[in-house]
UniProtKB/TrEMBL annotation:
SUPFAM superfamilies: Ribonuclease H-like. It holds the Pfam family HTH_38. Residues 276-455 form the Integrase catalytic domain. One of its GO terms (molecular function) is DNA binding. GO terms for biological process: DNA integration; DNA transposition. It comes from Acuticoccus sediminis. This is IS30 family transposase.
Length: 467
């Protein structure tokens, strides 16, 4: 037919301005999500994959923080029946050299009909002709391979309204009357969008998914998994649930957090040789004095008091941690100095000052949690001769004596109060009160009496008194 454009022979539907081809190949995306699965940040994963940081951040955001199914580590590799990007590059080079379809097919080990369809379907047709480019051809092939399935929440209006109402925290009485739930204001202590949170009156996705079977026992169309609800919230383009409903989740996250990234999150200064599992056995039976447990109690405006408890006698010492100059006077700087008074240097100096007043026999070990305030523990070991061990994450029972003492200290330093107003003399008075209090675990003797008895029995000069 005269005047007919060659591009019409491609048999491909007209494109509605889909934009430019992607900036990276499948191999790049595969390397990116493999790095994410290994615990890397989106910026570092983008660098490892050989793409720019903004591209990696966009991939992470569009996927909701989790790899698409065809890029997951458990996904099957592409079938060899499909042309790879390397083959398409070779086709483009051979085509530019003027080789015919059968010659190119012979060199690639493919059928001539495969090459004919490839050139007809995936060539660039913007100019009206056929210009084969590997990047454009791969882009067309990827688009044709997509089998998009509409989200269930997008097609079932009744189900979507049910999920949104309970996810948004619209509470109703058994007779259907809607009531206002509790208002939980944002206090800057939880992750997620910085706005008033509605999780106190909202249902979790799992609660919604499980409740559907009770509310609609006969209606099989009112079924959805909690994973599908999460994906509708996190993945862009699903078009089912409003993005701002992520503020109703208890985590408040707008993106998923890869599990490997969380498991790899730890304190770099906590090495295997100083974990609590390596602590000497004599510490556990409390027969030998000189082993301590330590922690911080936190108050208003990031104020803190350090606590040290001797395991055998329950003798307590309190560390004065006053705020440094500039605290509250200037805006808090990210990664700036710890002006609140309980940074690593301040805690190290306070522990060293308290421990040097004790004889060497009472400075055997110190067990602490994995707080950043103990990042200078190596210097403490050198200066004071105190072996420092760290508990396992989220295991406060491994410092049971210290946790119990902290509960007693809250009688004198209530939660939600400014602890920086208490001076050294007041802390000494509180410690004296605790050390002079009879304890059931000590057969109703006081910690000061037990410590004094142990010191005398060991022919060590008494340095801890309550007089």
């Amino acid at each position: 037919m005269a005047g007919r454009r060659r591009s019409e022979r491609s048999t491909r539907k007209a494109l509605r301005s889909p934009g430019r081809p992607p900036v990276a190949r499948r191999e790049h995306r595969q390397a990116f999500w493999s790095a994410i699965a290994g615990g890397r940040s989106s910026e570092d994963a983008a660098t490892d994959a050989g793409v720019s940081v903004p591209v990696g951040a966009r991939w992470f955001r569009e996927a909701g923080g989790m790899p698409p199914s065809h890029f997951a580590s458990s996904a099957r590799p592409p079938s060899e029946r499909y042309l790879s990007f390397a083959e398409r590059e070779e086709i483009a080079v051979l085509r530019a050299k003027g080789h015919g379809v059968r010659e190119i097919a012979r060199r690639l080990g493919r059928a001539a009909s495969t090459l004919s369809r490839e050139l007809r379907r995936n060539s660039a047709t913007r100019s009206g002709g056929f210009e084969y480019r590997a990047t454009t051809a791969q882009w067309h092939a990827d688009r044709a391979a997509l089998r998009p399935k509409p989200a269930k929440l997008a097609t079932n209006v009744k189900l979507r309204d049910y999920v949104q109402e309970r996810l948004a925290g619209r509470i109703a009485t058994p007779d259907g009357k809607k009531v206002a739930g509790p208002n939980v204001a944002w206090k800057g202590r939880r992750t997620g969008p910085r706005q008033d949170r509605r999780w106190a009156r909202a249902w979790s996705p799992e609660q919604i998914a499980r409740r559907l079977r009770l509310d609609f026992p006969q209606d099989e169309s009112m079924r959805i998994s909690h994973e599908a609800i999460y994906q509708s919230l996190y993945i862009q383009g699903r078009g089912a649930l409003k993005r701002e409903l992520t503020a109703c989740l208890r985590t408040g996250r707008a993106l998923r957090m890869p599990r490997s990234r969380v498991s790899g999150r730890g304190k770099s200064f906590v090495t295997p040789e100083i974990r609590i599992s390596e602590r000497p056995a004599e510490v556990a039976d409390r027969a030998v004095p000189g082993h301590w447990e330590g922690d911080l109690i936190i108050g208003l405006n990031r104020s803190a008091i350090g606590t040290l408890v001797e395991r055998t006698t329950r003798f307590t010492m309190l560390l004065h941690l006053p705020p440094l100059p500039g605290h509250r006077d200037t805006p808090r700087a990210k990664n700036g100095p710890a002006l609140a008074g309980h940074g690593a240097e301040a805690v190290r100096d306070a522990i060293a000052s308290a421990m040097t007043t004790l004889p060497e026999q009472l400075r055997r070990s110190l067990t602490w949690d994995q707080g950043a305030e103990m990042a200078k523990h190596a210097e403490l070991r050198v200066e004071v001769g105190l072996e420092v061990y760290f508990c396992d994450p989220q295991s406060p029972w491994q410092r049971g004596s210290n946790e119990n003492t902290n509960g007693l200290l809250r009688q004198y330093f209530p939660k939600g109060t400014d602890l920086s107003v208490h001076g050294i003399d007041e802390l000494a008075a509180v410690a004296c009160a605790l050390n002079s209090r009879p304890r059931k675990t000590l057969d109703w003797r006081t910690p000061a009496e037990v410590l004094d008895q142990l010191l005398r029995a060991g022919h060590i000069e008494t340095v801890a008194t309550t007089d």
